[in-house]
Amino acid sequence: MKKIIPLYLLLLLVGCKKATETNTKGAASPSPTLKASEKKEEHDIIKPAQTIVKPQQENIDFINYPIDDLEGITSTGTEGVYRNFDFSYRDGETLFILVPKIGAAKWYSQQAGQYKDQDADTMIDKKLSQQSFKGLSKEFNIFIFHTPKKYLKHTPNLDAPYTPKIPRTIFLYEYNNNDNSWKTLSHFTLKSENDEVKANEWRENFTSKLSSSEHKVNGTP
After folding, report:
1. How far separated are the first and last CA of the chain, in Å rounded?
2. pLDDT tens, position by position, 24-49
3. Calpha distance 93→190 (Å, rounded)
């Protein structure tokens, strides 16, 4: 049965698309491994932590999540950059961002060339959705925006089974397929409803940087 995507989630996904389109034209409490400085405002972008977050430490095996088939893997709006949202909310709110290691434009050109007489975007989305995140990590840098379930409210009578609470913290992780680890790149804490816009801007800015060719493999924006 087809689900109705809640408004705040549409804003989240549209925000990612808006940020990556702009990039194309131009070219909570702290995590156990990352604490914001008390001297910084919560809405500032936090510098990447040096600590590596192992999946087993949080008991969250993100890389072995099944690809959510409600939307499947789909384009963010920038050719070659893709996303997948976990509509089952297994361990919270999780949005995967996939960026080709050889560069989005180069990768997309190679793939689109295989479907000259077909809808290339549809065929590429379908091809990617039939794989696994673990398998895709060999070809893509994988990032996730994650809000732990403790920051979500169970809403079984609404279209979305969980909705975000305030205050809450959103974490940005990067996967390293060499040692099967997740590194915390940044996090953002919302203290009031007024921070929702700032959170979207923070997410858009990072998505734009992650989608650019300036981002190094397993590095920081």
Report:
1. 39
2. 444 444 444 433 333 444 444 444 44
3. 15
